[in-house]
Amino acid sequence: MNKIDFWVMLLSDFVSIALGIYIGRKLLSRLFTQREKNAEARSAEIIKNAELTAENIKKDRILEAREKYLKLKAEFEEDTNRKKNILITNENKLKQREQQLQQQAEQYKRREAELDQQKAKLDQQLESIGKRREEAERMRQQQVEALEKIANLTADQAREQLIDALKAEADSRASSYIKSVVEEAKLTATKEAKKVVIETIQRTATEHAIENCVSVFNIESDDIKGKVIGREGRNIRALEAATGVEIIVDDTPEAIIISGFDPVRREIARLSLHRLVQDGRIHPARIEEIVAKTRKNIEDEIVEIGERTVIDLGIHGLHPELIKMVGRMRFRSSYGQNLLQHSREVAKLCATMAAELGLNAKLAKRAGLLHDIGKVWPEEAELPHAVLGMELAKKYKEHPEVCNAIGAHHDEIEMTSLISPIVQVCDAVSGSRPGARREMMESYIKRLKELEELAMGFQGVLKCYAIQAGRELRVMVDAENVTDEKANTLSFDISQKIEKEMQYPGQIKITVIREMRSVAYAK
């Protein structure tokens, strides 16, 4: 190949390349122009859509704002109207109240004027009464002077003669009364002598009184006894104050003596000690808590005893209050005889005797069980126990024959049915068994109860317990109403009243206890 052909080929290649480049550039330029137009069109469309969306959002926000404005405006107007109505109502009430006050003020003025008139009248009447009194005194003095002239005696001399005449008449009546009393005493001397001898014999039976007034609580060791006593005896004092019995801790090994005339109190103290020893926590607050729970349990036990008794005897339809009183008989003695056992025995005797005589055995048994129900009535009453029992039986809708038998078994009322003498006879049979009763025990317990009731009559006394066989009276007072000085005066007043109103051997120690407690709660 020569040079000319070479250059021609080279030139043709160059021209082809240049032409390709030119055509490529044109094509790229046209492609880029088309894409730019498409992008501008899309951008314009997006901007238009965005403007439309923004306009719609703006319209929605404006509508929401307008609705919220209207709602707030309506609420504001409603609240304003309501308050306005309230103000108008209050204003009307104030006007009415003002009118009422004005009317009352006018009434008070009229009343004041009437009172002034009445006062003036009363002043005139008092003045008139004073004048009449002076005139009456002057007339009385004139009459006395006239009588003194007629009788030739002064008023003092006439008074002395009248006193002498009354003394002579009183001496004459006293002499005749003493004579009749002596004659009556001669007629009843034998009976009274027997009574005195029997009471004298009974006074020597001290072990019977101890059996009825003392309970023994057994403990395991002296360490437990020390816990029961507490520091400086504070636990013993707390237990005595809560239960009303006397706790005697002496050298007797493994035993603590509980002394008190009320069997219920002794039982509460014994059970409380048992629970405290088992629990191990013995302090005044715990003692009060345990005693309260035990007292509630004893009440439940009393109801259970009553229910068990009436079931055993086959008595039905008894009122719950009467059942409770029957259970309370378990902790009551009559002349040293357990009242529940005595009543059960009388009920069985009455049923047997009524059956032998062809009478209603069920009514007789019912009357025999309830004949001494008046002895366990918790409230103090002035009626004999037979009449009180009859009233209770009537109150709880018992049969009239049962009520009459209860009231007549000591001849307080007239017997109107054949069951009444049966109950009276069976009561005497049960009580007349050898060793069944000890009358001194009953009079002893009655004296202790009277001692407690006498002290409870004073203002400020919360609790009162007779202990040490009635030789000491412990009185718990309200610390807020009774000061230390008043406590001293109270002990003296109680002692003076006991001396005036009661008969007792030896002397009685009155101890007034005032305890101040401050309690607060952390919340």
From TrEMBL:
- Which family is this sequence assigned to? Belongs to the RNase Y family.
Name the enzyme group at the top EC level.
hydrolase
Main localization of the protein? membrane
Q: Which organism is it from?
A: Larkinella arboricola
EC assignment: 3.1.-.-
Pfam families cross-referenced by the UniProt entry: HD, KH_1, RNase_Y_N
Q: What does this protein do?
A: Endoribonuclease that initiates mRNA decay.
> What sections of the protein cross the membrane?
6-24
Q: What is this protein called?
A: Ribonuclease Y
